[in-house]
Amino acid sequence: MSASTPFGLYVHWPYCQRLCPYCDFNIYRQRDGEHDDLLQAILADIKAHGERIGVPGLLHSLSFGGGTPSLMKPHQIRAVIETAAKVFGFDENVEISLEANPDALDDEICQNFANAGINRLSIGVQSLDDTALKFLGRDHSAAQAQKAVRAAQKAGLRVSADFIYDLPGQSIEEWTRGLSAALALNLAHYSFYALTIEPGTAFGVQVQKGRLNPSTENHAFDLYALTQDITAKAGLPAYEVSNHARSPDDQSRHNLIYWQNGDWVGVGPGAHGRVNFNGQRTAMVSAMRPDAYCNQVKGTGWGINEITPLTREDITMEALSMGLRLRTGLDLYGLKTRTGHVINQTKLQSLIDEGFLQLHNTRLSVREKGWAVIDRLVLELLT
Ligand SMILES: C[S@@+](CC[C@H](N)C(=O)[O-])C[C@H]1O[C@@H](n2cnc3c(N)ncnc32)[C@H](O)[C@@H]1O
Ligand code: SF4
């Protein structure tokens, strides 16, 4: 990896005050105490990564995700940031972001986050309608979410807000109102996610028992198209399937590392990483449960319990499925140089002819018709 290739660190904090009925992330109910055992394991894991994979470059981003990392104490956040700075070093424009739930965010907490070194907050607003928030099992109201956003801005943080749409029964008119309330926050970055019903979640069980009627694919597509239209008119076009920014500077630098198939280290329970290890691009996965993760670090020095060297086919598949999520797509020439793997030219031409993909010089990107079926397009290109 060259010195300028973006390199990131992801820290997974798995605890949540309450488990939301739609969420299937690697999450656990918050217990009493500060989970200092987990913090110590994470710090040791970062150091072990520095020793075992080396230092690929300065960190362009450090991202605290979850779970609810806004439940971490400022001294814990500071300890992670200081360790990351010591082990890998920070690029001068490093993005240090944290996912936050709005319920506990006030001026003091946001200022504490900023003082600890956080410079971007991604706030899980989900909706600005109290009935929808209740349906989603959230602990905050619309007014609290608005207050949280203002508190983060007051502390000088870059702010993004997550929203969930396509709730069962949500009409075009309702989401039009929801979107305009979201845009009235006047932020420079938004993530708009269509609700997915995940097996094993409370919503998944309700759907299975016929107590909840999920939306249809066609309706989801209509709401997606509406989202594209309204956000573009508001100067916040999608730069990725679900992510919108006012300008390139406002984009999520951390997520761009994933979408551009860069390298990152993942620490914390269940975290994934992609790094150059023993001369080969390698997928690493940490032990899932917090206790298993802490034991793994104690026993082996780091949290990793799965190490998979990636084949050129794996790398091509990941680069395509992540890169095509970006509006700007990906450079096929760069991909071929990197992996030596050639995609199916006949399929490529027919997907272009059918209006799913477009090729400008060597840059391949998805056209509007293809946004909802990216995974299928990737499979076709690789067969
Ligand atoms: C890992 S969650 C963490 C955010 C934070 N704990 C919160 O809830 O505010 C990141 C985002 O994923 C989105 N999300 C999670 N589960 C989803 C689902 N089943 N469908 C759509 N979006 C989902 C939510 O918008 C959420 O804010
Ligand atoms: S949506 Fe956020 S708060 Fe809710 S369970 Fe998932 S990670 Fe936790």
Describe this structure as you would to a colleague:
40% of the residues lie in helices and 24% in strands. It is an alpha/beta fold and 383 residues long. The protein has two domains: 7-257, TIM Barrel (Alpha-Beta Barrel); 332-381, no CATH class. The strands form four sheets. It has a nine-stranded mixed β-sheet with strand order 9-10-8-7-6-5-4-1-11, sandwiched between helices. It is globular and about 55 Å long. The two termini are 29 Å apart. The structure holds S-adenosylmethionine (SAM) and iron/sulfur cluster (SF4). S-adenosylmethionine (SAM) binds next to strand 4, strand 6 and strand 7.
Please give a quick description of this structure.
By secondary structure, the chain is an alpha/beta fold. The chain contains 14 helices and 17 strands. The mean pLDDT is 96.
Topology record:
Elements: E1 7-13, E2 15-16, E3 28-29, H1 36-53, E4 59-66, H2 74-87, E5 90-100, H3 107-116, E6 120-126, H4 130-135, H5 142-154, E7 158-165, H6 172-183, E8 189-194, H7 202-208, H8 217-233, E9 238-240, E10 243-245, H9 253-259, E11 263-267, E12 272-277, E13 280-286, H10 290-300, E14 304-309, H11 312-323, E15 330-331, H12 332-339, H13 345-353, E16 357-360, E17 363-366, H14 374-381
Parallel strand pairs: 1-4, 1-11, 2-3, 4-5, 5-6, 6-7, 7-8
Antiparallel strand pairs: 8-10, 9-10, 12-13, 13-14, 15-17, 16-17
